[in-house]
Amino acid sequence: MKKQYLTFIFCLVLIIGCATSPTGRRQLMIVSEETAISASKQAYVEMLKPYEQEGKVDNDPALKDRVYRITERLIAQAIRMRPETEKWDWSIKIIDDPKTVNAWAMAGGKMALYSGLVIQLKTTDDELAQVLGHEIAHALANHSAEKMSVAMATTVGVVAVGVATDRRGLALTGAALAAALAVQRPNSRAAESEADRIGIELAAKAGYDPRAAITLWQKMAQVGGKGPPEFFSTHPSPENREKKLAGYVPEMMPYYEQKGDRPIYRL
After folding, report:
1. Strand residues in the chain grouped as ranges (E)
2. Domain layout of the chain by residue ranges
3. What totals of helices (H) and strands (E) does the chain contain, helices first?
4. Cα–Cα distances in Å, from 86 out to 79, 90, 132, 177?
5. Of 32, 239, 241, 263, which is most buried with the most CB atoms under 10 A?
């Protein structure tokens, strides 16, 4: 009886808690975007705190300038796609960790990039724009709130929250902890495909070669050593990913080749 009751509640959540992503995909959404943004703001500070205490945040001026220059062009295009996001408190921090190939984004445009992604992949600006565009796309498509909703709607999510608390030792509770958990948990294949599609468009419109999405994932596949990049733990990599990205290139090339100045959002 208890199992049937939980099933009924979950089905009810599915009925009343749905939203539509920028690509038209239906999303489970029992956590509002406003709640996710507020929770992510708190979680972002706590997640970065250990690195800041060790002096490992934004300590490479050249890399910071490079990342900011690219991100500012991408955010300008994100705002064109979703004008209301101009009010977001956009932010990106570069974490000094040469061994970690990873990047992530939270609701409201709170982002982080690990230096290992640039160092180990030897990314060009075009390739780095694909990574950052992909992360911005996660924020635009409200994937944090979606993952928070899934976690809060399942018993598995409740257990996972407890595990995350024990392992990470974060000074977070409630929605803020769920926001931190959303960064640590894998994205769905649907969310990844959506972020790929939106991200490559943002990058092309910002003036970055869409063909770099293919070379980026070729490099990502070659990096491993004892294990796959940390990026794969939260960004699953289906075998046909390069093929799908290659399929987007002809559509994106006109955006990339268009003339005129590209707008910039100052961080």
Report:
1. 18-20, 26-28, 91-95, 103-106, 110-114
2. 30-257
3. 12, 5
4. 6, 8, 17, 26
5. 241
Dihedral sign computed on CA atoms, order 184, 189, 195, 200: positive
Residue entry with tokens 């990873």: 102
Q: What angle do CA 209, 115, 246 make, to 5 degrees?
A: 25
CB atoms under 10 Å from CB of 225, counted, come to: 8
Please write down the HEC assignment for all residues of 51-93. Answer: HHHCCCECCCHHHHHHHHHHHHHHHHHHHHHCHHHHHCCCEEE
With vertex at residue 35, the alpha carbon angle to CA 29 and CA 39, rounded to the nearest 5 degrees, is 120
DSSP string computed for 230-248: THHHHS---TTHHHHHHHH
What's this model's pTM, rounded to 2 decimal places? Answer: 0.83
Q: What's the token pair of residue 104?
A: 């992530």
Using one digit for the tens of pLDDT, what is the confidence trace for 236-266? 887 788 999 999 999 999 999 999 999 999 9
Q: How far apart are CA 126 and CA 17, in angstroms?
A: 38
Report pLDDT digits (tens) over 149-176: 766 656 444 444 444 444 445 556 667 7
pLDDT tens by residue, 195-239: 999 999 999 999 999 999 999 999 998 886 556 788 988 888 877
* Whether the Cβ atoms of residue 222 and residue 101 lie closer than 8 Å to each other: no
Of 103, 76, 107, 63, nearest to 89 by C-alpha is: 107
18 residue type, one letter: C
